[in-house]
Amino acid sequence: QTVDGWLGGMGIGVTHTPPGQLPRLPDKAVGLAETFVAGYSGCVFLNGSEKRTQWQPETLKIGQRVGLLITGDGREHFKVFVDGVERLHVDGADL
Predict the structure, then answer these.
(1) Do 36 and 95 contact (CB within 8 A), yes or no?
(2) What would the pLDDT profile of 5-62 be if each residue is shown by its tens digit?
(3) Which pTM does this prediction carry?
(4) pLDDT digits (tens, 9 = 90+) for 17-33
């Protein structure tokens, strides 16, 4: 579902910032150090840098499943899947 007044779609990601280092829960994860997020209006935020992507999460339909994988193969690629199909791939060298 969407929120009135919100531009873009959902964001999904991970952070290395321990919860104990946060003075409060942030409104947006993109401002956290060592954080990697994809989505919103077709962007990835990689540890403080922003890049455009082809994945547009605002096109998601209710009921679709979204997953995130950081590969554990030594390359640490960042992948987003929609209904089991890879929709975004960020090479681990770019993280």
Answers:
(1) yes
(2) 777 888 999 988 888 888 887 777 777 878 899 998 899 988 888 899 999 999 999 9
(3) 0.84
(4) 888 888 887 777 777 87
Give all strands (DSSP E) within the chain, no chain letters. Answer: 11-15, 35-39, 43-46, 49-52, 66-70, 78-82, 85-90
How many degrees, rounded to 5, is the angle at CA 68 between CA 5 and CA 11?
15
The pair of three-digit structure tokens given for residue 46, joined into one six-digit string: 């990689």
C-alpha 80/C-alpha 84 separation (Å) is 9
| Token code pair at residue 66 | 């979204």
CA–CA separation, 3 vs 53, rounded Å? 22
Single out the residue of 32, 28, 12 nearest to residue 90, CA to CA: 12
Residue 60 contacts residue 46 (beta carbons within 8 Å): no
Q: How far apart are CA 2 and CA 25, in angstroms?
A: 21
Partner residues linked to 86 by β-bridges: 81
